[in-house]
User: Fold these one by one.
Assistant:
Number 1:
Amino acid sequence: MKMTWLQGAHLAGGRPGGVGWIYNPFLLLVFRLVLAAVFIYAAVHKIGRPLAFADEIHTYGVVDYGPPLYVMAIALPWLELLCGLSLVTGVFVRGSALVLLGLNALFLVVIARKTAGFMHIGTPFMKVYFDCGCGFGATFAWKKLLEDALYLILAAVLMAAPLHRFTIRFRRRSS
Amino acid sequence: MKMLKNAMLQAIVILAAALVLGFTFNALSRNRINPFKNPAKVPVAVSSSQAAVEGIKIITLEEARQAVESGVPVIDARRKAEYDEGHIPKAMLLDYYDMGTYKDRVLAHLSDDQTIMVYCSEVSCEDSELLANELYSLGFTKLLVFKGGFAEWSAAGLPVERSAQ
């Protein structure tokens, strides 16, 4: 039976080809804690100030003022917090990795779009500097894009990794 | 495939939990908003000219300084204790969380065709925007919100007034 790389990674205990080391349980735990720290910190900064956060989202020019924007401002910080807590506790690791994968992909797109806006009015790429509303204050866009790309990769690894030593598994009881 | 299905199911559970927690917290929070009533439906002016302000306009420190110097009435949306410690000169106290105490007294000094500036503590506080929305619904349609608030004002070394204790 021919297996895909991903299936192979799981069945072989996380040693597909030459990158199996990335599935080392301790390394995966570090990845989880790094992502958790970032997203819990970002969430705590946003929870309880929905109007200001809605203004920050609005500056990206993607969603106009209206219920979708406010629902996002209310729920997004909690989504980040729950994903962070899930990564710390080891419950629903793949689910939260999937959510973070989606969120980081979205953040990359909107930050790149905003950066392109600055470049359009003549700011050199390396000098584009703004507060992304992520909870970490103003920073250079290239730095933020790199960070988000790193988080995206970490989330993708956690998503594809086999359930390792420090995760909590839920199994259906067979009768 | 099963792995992806499991991940998606878990993601849906997390999303649903985030919505429930977010809305519950919002309902209990003092900064709550009604997302379906569109709290910022008020038009936001884009012109930097005060004369053109119609709706709520977020202004910078420099614009706030100009507004104060040109005699625009200023409202401080913070708590009385913060106001007493220091406020923008001639600002009137209208604690957003104690509107009943101050509203009539403050509004008596204002007419609804005037441009009014509102501020609170700092850039992250929302009380100035919430109060501006409240004032808008009361018929005051020319509102300036100084987002930097008292923190930015005092950090810039601009004049500060203190209440007599």
Number 2:
Amino acid sequence: MVRHRKLGERIGTFFMFAGPTTLIFTVVMVLPFLYGIFLTFTDWDGQANSFAFVGFQNYRIALFDPVFWTSLWLTLRYAIVGVFLTNAVAFFLAYILTSGVKASGFFRAGFFTPNLIGGIVLGFVWQFIFSRVFPQIGRAMGWTLFSTSWLSDPNKAFWALVIVTVWQYSGYMMVIYIAGLVSVPGELLEAASIEGAGSWAKLRRIILPLIRPSVIVCFFLTIQRCFMVYDLNLSLTNGGPYRSTTLISMNVYQTAFLSRQYGPGQAEAIFLFFVVAGVSLAQVYFGKRKEVEM
Amino acid sequence: MTRKRVVAMLLILSLFSFSAFADVHITLLNTKAEIQAQLEDVAKVFSAESAGITLEIQPVQASESPFQALSTLYASGNAPSLAMMDPADIPLFAEKFLDLRNEKWVKDSTDDFEAVKTKSGAIMAFPLTVEGYGLIYNKAVLAKAGVDPTKIHTTAALEEAFQKIQASGVDALIIAPMDWSLAAHFLGVAYSVTARNQAGLESFIADLKAGRADVSKNKAFVGLLDTFDVMKKYNAGKSDPLAITLDECPALLGRGKVGFYFMGDWAWPALSSFASDQNGFGFIPVPLSNNASDFDNSGIPVGVTKYIGIDKMQNTPEQQAAARAFLDWLVYSKSGQNALVNTCSIIPAFRNIMLSPTTPHPLSESIRAYVAQKNTLFWVSIPAPDHWSKVGASMQKYLAGKIDRRRLYAEINDFWKSTK
């Protein structure tokens, strides 16, 4: 049909359909990002009417700040635990809900609902649960683990963040896993059963390899969301107790807006961008290499 | 025919545009969350009384500092016409605020404006509230325990008072574990006593930043933290001190479940909703030593805590004029004075406002008494924007028993050495 169209025509068609979105994306994401990189080489404090160039000073300040690395390390631990737990729970739920349980549609909707609640509201609800409900129950039943608010202790607050993250995202990932599981051809599984494969063997050798694309997508989404989390961090712990659960996005925000160090704050943000981009792209690349095509 | 129609339409359209021009819309950024509802009422009264001006009150999130909120608004091009800020934040926005030195109310104010004057003598903001803080006590609880609040001028006397209250069957005090309360207000007493005035504060901070001053060798800090140790021992929330919320504390004090609560007079709206005796509260100073004749054991910090600046960069001249009209209205009109004194329960910083509160406000009465007896300490607004958060975190660790006194001193010293 229209095979050898001129380049100009193809560009014209592209902009006719994708133009508005590309324009908005460029203006809202790309330009501020580039402007941000430019600002990291200046000493502008966000208020003054003029600024001077300072070279790599902001990067030096940001990357030599021990608080930045503590926060990044904390976020890394949170992301690893969060990603694995979320995906494990999501896959487990998806597996059960595709194995012919009654009312699975109702359960799917139910498990998905936490994802619809925004991070701020979710944080406040769980903050109430951790600091008011659990201690009451814990004291009444004599369970020392729950007698004090989980949000008063740095380790327990960390796990509180993980629990709420898993609760929020496993429903969403479950839906993606269900789509993946449902697309595994039934004949393959039947053939395997006839040849004497048990459930565990079927899971390991047939299902998991075939749902690899879903796994890659889910890991990508959870990694990105865990690394960049802010709303949940703010509403559940607000970085507390005593700034011990300040994850990296909150650290960037506080450096820039609380401590009024805009240059170092922006430098931290740029660094964070490259870390997350690097991790996500690496994960997708290594995941896709071993993908099985049907 | 058509020409007449066009002219008629133009006339009608111009009438609409007239009313659009006449109605100036100004905004006030409110950083005092406890009076948000009251300020909205005040805005309604002002808008009704002022032809063509509508005032809208913008709230700030509880977890944001005033500085964070205002910088974000300027950055997004939505700067409010009036911004209520802490004294230490005003100089940071001096380039963006209107010079108010020729306003009528400058001469009628009790404030010296030192905190908000530029080097050229321009006055950058309007003093909104005079406030004070200290140990708020519940008269009924103290009376029942046989404690005389006017006789507590040493740490030992305070501990004795706590013991008596405990013996009468009630918890001695409740400590609000908020970082801003512990670092900006409680530790503020030590900064205030060391500095004595704005110049003294600047030199003390300079010494801390250079490492020439060490808080572990500062009598005020040592004495204040000794008192804090006593407070920790009798804290009603000591089994899980960081889990106490800000709402619980006035409830406990108001209902007579504790005897003392360290906070400022801005806690009155919350406190009065729980109090059976609306007059039954007052302030005592936080003692810093065991020497009863020390002046610092008799005074509470009192000062202007919130200033309002008018934006000149992102607001039109009409909006700036309307904003100045609002400030004049607050000081000189009957309904404006009523708004300050009665609706918002504020102690105004103006000599000409003679109005007394119609509803009881024992905390502001207590402050007026300290002011009348000249028993006030210099109100410190700490010139580091993240002091309340970082040193507040250190104080919270100390409150929860995670670090000892030596570590706390080290963290406070390190904070100043690493701040620009």
